[in-house]
Structures are given as C-alpha cells and as structure tokens.
Amino acid sequence: MKNLKLSYLKITNFNQFIFIISLSVFLSFLLNNSNKKCNIKEIKTLEKNSIIIVGHAYGSEEKSKLRDHKNISEKVLNFYKDNEDNIDILIFSGDVLHTPSREKWKNFYLQFKEDKIIYISPGNHDTGDYIKSSRRKIFTDFRHRNQNNTLFPFKFKIDKNLFIIDDSTTINKKPLERIIEITNNLNDNYKNIFIIRHHVLPISLKDYANGNSPILIKEEDFKKLINKNITFIYGDGGAKKNYKGLVCKRIGGIRHILNGIGEKEDDSVIIIKNNKIFKKII
C-alpha cells in the first residue's frame, strides 16, 4: 500500500509539473504575440502641417486599367484635394504608377501644387525589377520634384523625426546592414526614425504583401538595431482582397507597418503629426 501511495504521489506531482510547464508556454505565447501586435490610431480629420505616406497609390489593377493606367487612384487624389492645405509633405512608398512613362510622371506631379514637397520610395512598378530596366531609366532620368539625381537611401529631418527614404527595388543583398549602419551611428537624438521603403523585410509580413520581396529577413536579425524608436513603413500592401489594408507588427522591438491602396473600404493613408503616427481611412 505504501508503494502504491508513493506511486500515486509521483504521478500527481508529474501532472502538476506538466500543467505548470504548459501554462508557462501558453502565457509566453500570449505575451510574445501581444508584443508583435501594434495598433495605429485612426483620426477623422487632418490637422495643419501633416505628413502623409501613401503606399500602392495606383490602387487596384482593375481601376487602374479603366483609366488606361494613367495617374494614381482617384481615392488618393480626392483625399489630397480635400486636405491639401493641411498637408506639408507627401511621401509615396512605391507602386505610384502602374505602367510609368515620362509623360505619366509629368502628369503625376501636375496633380499637386508646385510648392508641395513630394518624395518617392520607388516600387517595382515604378522602376522595374532589375537595375537596368527601361522603367528604372525613365525613373532616374526624370527630374523629380524634390529628389532629382538623389542616391538612395537619403534622409531628411522634420522636427524631432528622421525620415530615411530607401529604394527596395535595387539588387542589394544586405539592406538591413545598410540601415543599421545609418541608424546606429546617428549623432542626434530623434523622437522617431521612419524608414520608408516599398518591399517588406520581415519574413512574417510576406503573406500580407502584394508581391514578392527581393530580400526577406529573420525576425531575430532586427535586434541588431540599437535604436528602438524605429518604424519601418512599407508600401507594398492593400491590394489583397482577403487581407487588411494596414498591418502593424512589432518585431525585435521595432515597429513595422505595411500599408497600401487597393480600392477597398479600409483603404487608408498614414499620417505623421506631432511626432506621432496615425491612419486615416480615405
């Protein structure tokens, strides 16, 4: 009877041990997943001096085809016209035009006031998939308004924010190393560092993106970034019908936002104002 009792006690303790381990794993799973999710606050009205970031501006394939692939989505143009006096800077995070030409780039800029600051982080539709493509030659030869003959990545400062505009369409096998070199050697203290590029970098975002990224990076590699006030903003989103127009995740302590226009009800643009980031449904 003693042996039987001892045996029963061992089994009970073992079950308790398994329960504790299982509970710990479950809580760890919840904690890790909550850390990976981030919400972007929605605003209804635009304040003065706002910075706007627009991904996949040509919109859906179907709507672009109806206008003979000329210019950007009407939703984006209407949003701009309704809010142009409150917009200081427009940043387009790739796939601005579906099938660009010199004439189409010219018409694109004509939609905006001459004094409106515009930056473009090109997508594969804008420059093609290869360095020597005809679209890239058109893009690089064209006299863009605020970045003529500018090499990527380039950066500029607004208030306490640093903006880095990258080109994800070039053949660069180490894009994260380049960003690490820039951000880990900054002399100034910035409230935010926004890195704008078209293609996603984290592997965990690839299924949400419209197309394939040339380079995908493991989550643990983002821990090499010393600054944790970095936000990556990608423009290759929004077109997939079964996915949200905006996806936000925290990876390695760094915030990653994928956004774009897909002619859907939840189409949104990203707003940066007062050192904070918001979204606005358009």
Search tags:
6-stranded mixed sheet, Purple Acid Phosphatase, chain A, domain 2, alpha/beta, 2 domains, 282 residues, 12 strands, globular
Structural features, described:
- There is one protein chain.
- The protein is an alpha/beta fold.
- The protein has 2 domains: 1-36; 43-281, Metallo-dependent phosphatases (Purple Acid Phosphatase, chain A, domain 2, 4-Layer Sandwich), CATH 3.60.21.10.
- Helices cover 29% and strands 22% of the residues.
- The protein is built from 7 helices and 12 strands.
- It has helices spanning 2-36, 61-66, 74-83, 102-110, 124-127, 134-141, 175-183; strands spanning 41-42, 50-54, 87-92, 117-120, 154-158, 161-165, 192-197, 230-234, 246-251, 254-259, 268-273, 276-281.
- The strands form 2 sheets. Strands 1-12-11-2-3-4 form a 6-stranded mixed beta sheet, with helices on one face. The chain has a 6-stranded mixed beta sheet with strand order 5-6-7-8-10-9, with no helix packed on it.
- Strand 9 (246-251) and strand 10 (254-259) form a beta hairpin.
- Mean pLDDT is 87; it is low at 1-11 and 25-35.
Helix content: 25-40%
CATH homologous superfamily placement of the largest domain: Metallo-dependent phosphatases
Strand order of the largest sheet: 1-12-11-2-3-4
Estimated radius of gyration: 23 Å
What global shape is seen?
globular
CATH class of the largest domain: Alpha Beta
How many domain modules? Answer: 2
- Helix-and-strand structural type: alpha/beta
Q: List unreliable stretches of 5+ residues.
A: 1-11, 25-35
